[in-house]
Every structure is written in C-alpha cells, then in structure tokens.
Amino acid sequence: MKLNQLRDLVAIVEHGGLRAAARRLGVAQPLLTRSVRGLEKELGTPLFERQARGMVLTPLGRLFHERARGMVNELRRARDELAQAQGSGAGTVIAGLSIMPHMGLLPRALPAFRRRYPQVYLQLIEGLFPDLESQLRSGAIDFYLGAAPGTVPAGFIVERLFSNTRAVVCRKGHPLARSRSLKALAGAEWALPSTDYDNQDDLARLFQEYGLPSPRVALQARTALSMMVALANSDLLALLPVQWREFDLTRDSLQVIAVRESLPAPDIVLIRRAEMPMTPAAEHLCDLMQRNAPSLQPTRGRA
C-alpha cells in the first residue's frame, strides 16, 4: 500500500468523483482508476460502488476512508511542521470558526499571523462544533474556536476562553429599534444564525422564560454573510453574539436593540484533538486569538 493510493482515495471522495479528483491532483484519470483498483485488490474488497450517479463508498470503503483521510492529514501536518521548523514558513492551516471569532477575533489576529507566516495557506471554515467534529477528529481541521457545544466527545481538549452574551440585532432605522423589552419584539419575525444547534427552541425558551409566546422564525442563515444581507434588507430580527455591534462591516447597516432582559450565550471555547500536536503556524494562530479573547469578554456595562 502506497501513500499516493491513500491520497487518491481521499481526493476522489472529497471532490465527488474521478474526473474532479484527477483535475485537482493534476493527474490523468486512468491513473486514478488504476490506483483505486490496486488498493481494492490489496485490501481484498471493493471500496466503491460504481453507480449511475458516480462512485459511492461501500460500507467497508467508508471505514477505510476515515482511516485513510486521517493518515493523509497527518502526513500533511508532519510535512508542514518540518517546513515551518526549518524556517520556510510554508504549509496550510485550516481553522473552524463560529460567527463570533469571525467577527471579533479574526480581524485582530489575522494581520499579525500574516506577518509571521506570509507563505502559509490559511483556510477558514465557518460552522459550529457539531458540524465540524468529524473533520476535526480526522485532522482535516487543525482546531475549532467558537460557541461551546452541549457536550464534547472523548478525544478532544477543550479550553474555555470566556463567557459570552447575545444582543438583538436589526437594520438601521428599524421600526422597533427603540424598543427596550422582548415583549415589544414578540410580534416581529426572526432570523436564526445556524442549523447546527436547535436555535429555534432556544429562541422560544428565551421568550417563554419571560412569559411571552414563541416568536415566528422566517429565515435561517448558514453564514454570517447571509445573515448580514438578510438583516440589512428586511425587518427581520436576530439574536446574535454581542460582538456584532462592534464589527466594522455592519456598523453602518445594522444596530442593536437595547432590551433590558439578560440574553446569555454559549461560552467561547477552543477545541483541539487531544493526541495530536498542532503545527507551529496553527499554534501561532491559536495563540493570537487566545491573547485577544479577554478584550472581547462582555462586561455587565457593555452586554
């Protein structure tokens, strides 16, 4: 079994087929076909089912792919670590971030990171931990920083950075912008920021806690960009991390409705794999974000 065979297998799965994988790897498609057939012969089992809609992993293929993906990612990480230790500063860092770090931490950390590692390719993936867990476990993502999940499975290290709060966000000039209570907002329509957590129930519980009916949810935005566009161009409201109010790109189009009720949010945490050290570049990015985290801790007066 050769490493390039594992690489080929992972590429076929990640890119959805032989043609796209060959294009991504810069090799001829027949070479990939021979590589996979050789791997299947060595393992003594088919890894793919050839169907009309393309190549689909068999049950055994899915098991093997998880191991192969981890090995390919560890090889990438080892190569990057060696290059960075030698001073070349090359390699790749892949970070999973929820909305809050995108808004509050990345703008502070990115300039210093680019100065220290100008040759590193940085890939940012927006999401919450449940959506990114498998990629973090396999090594496809170096670390997750964002809203804490309800539970974290074994095999991960969790570091709490700070407790957070939320704010009600709307477009500038919204008819309800001067409201000071959730009761005044009960008849509004709302947007939810993610599908990874049960945010609709969370929003309903918040209103019910104050004896109010559940609000109507009209939109769900998977990304911060989708949320910004939706709020700026409608009368929708959203319950978002309080750091949105200080984000430069939304300051001219969005505003916070200063309700008197407490609006708690999940803690902000850093999660990494327990058994695998990060590369120097990934460690540096984590360190920059950790150092900036205390400045984003909401205080009683600011929340």
Automatic annotation (TrEMBL):
- What is this protein's record name? LysR substrate-binding domain-containing protein
Q: Does the keyword Cytoplasm apply?
A: no
Q: Could you list this entry's UniProt keywords, alphabetically sorted.
A: DNA-binding, Transcription, Transcription regulation
Say which species the protein is native to.
Answer: Pigmentiphaga daeguensis
Q: Which family is annotated?
A: Belongs to the LysR transcriptional regulatory family.
Q: Which InterPro entries does the protein's record reference?
A: HTH-type_LysR_regulators, LysR_HTH_N, LysR_subst-bd, WH-like_DNA-bd_sf, WH_DNA-bd_sf
Matching PROSITE patterns, A to Z? HTH_LYSR
The HTH lysR-type domain is annotated at 1-58
Q: Quote the PANTHER family the UniProt record gives.
A: HTH-TYPE TRANSCRIPTIONAL REGULATOR YBHD, LYSR FAMILY TRANSCRIPTIONAL REGULATOR
Which parts form a coiled-coil structure per UniProt?
Answer: none
